[in-house]
Amino acid sequence: MSVVIQPVSRRRDLRRFLHLPFRLHRDHQGWVPPLLADERYMFDPRRNGAFRYCDCALWLARDAGGEVVGRIAGIINRRYNEIKGEHQARFTHLDCVDDVEVMDALLGQVKQWAHEAGMEVVIGPMGFTDQDPEGFVIEGFDEEPSIATYHNREYIVRLLERLGWGKDVDYVVYKVPVPTEIPQFYERVYQHLARRNTFRVLEFTHRRELKPLIRPVLELMNETYVNIAGYAPLDREEMEDLARRYLPVISPRFVKVVSVGDEPVGFIIGIPNVVPGIRRARGRLLPLGWYWILRSSRRARRLDLLLGGIKEEYRGKGVDVLMGRAMIRSAQAAGFEYFDSHHELECNTRMRAEMERMGGNVYKRYRVFRMTV
Predict the structure, then answer these.
(1) Full set of structural domains in the chain with CATH
(2) What is the pTM of this model?
(3) Residue 278 and residue 352: Cα distance in Å, rounded?
(4) Angle 207-224/236-246 helices, nearest 10 degrees?
(5) CA-CA distances (angstroms) from residue 308 to 220, 312, 319?
(6) What gap in Å lies between CA 221 and CA 350, rounded to an integer?
(7) Residue 282: which region, alpha, beta or left (left: phi > 0; alpha: psi -120 to 50)?
(8) What digits encode the pLDDT tens for the residues 247-257?
């Protein structure tokens, strides 16, 4: 196949870029289409605040007949590189037909672009920020994905490995059954901490109760995620934007915060599995996409644990147990059958031990790949 790489420079090119996966995955059982509104937002420099500190370029691959057969985006997060002292570029939104020449041409374009910008390594898939999907599925292809994750075909990984791309980091995902009773260990720790009266568990029933805590919790996320691979702190404008976008879809029942006085020292956020609704919406929120997503949320039997963190000096002091106990009680009341842990770094032994103590098993694994330029 003769492959031509074309930069995305016009609106109709961007439309082809965003819509290509719908063609490539039309017979891919289990694939979850991205929400096109979110995709357009991501690549709009006027709305996505990450463009203030990120360079980004998009490309399409065409075959000899002019048909679009692949796509890729390159990102350089200058804020991350400055904080970490690295010269790293990223690729994201890589998708193509099962052809090594097409993938080699796409990745070669990103490597050339990164090299010309003075970068030394390319990793991916990794987005602008930690809130974007990262890592290709390498285990658990037949399992139901969760939101903000890739659900790639198996040949994508095979082609990357054939081209010499190696492992940068793996994320594991646990399937954790919701117990019918609170584990005795949790109850013992809870009773001990309740007598000391050091910590306060905050639970919520209305979104308006969450608003005063949005910024403190996101600031805590900045602090606790500082050593996570690929993470760069959010600024105030990004925090406000993140809150505007996601507060309407968060169920207050599945937000738990532990505080010492008025200071949050731990948080966890869960969301009912809405993947079947997103799949039914076919990437569009209007006219009926919102209905299918909300309907899916109400019928879900899986609770996805999207975000969580504990302030460094309070780790190992029972904060995780307090949040876990509260989340289990809410999951029981809502009729959930199991938790999906979302991405956990494979080296996060403390969190992994907690998932396994709850009876969880790894059922999906994602990999971020790496290549020197």
Answers:
(1) 4-168 (3.40.630.30), 179-336 (3.40.630.30)
(2) 0.94
(3) 29
(4) 140
(5) 10, 13, 11
(6) 17
(7) left
(8) 777 899 999 99
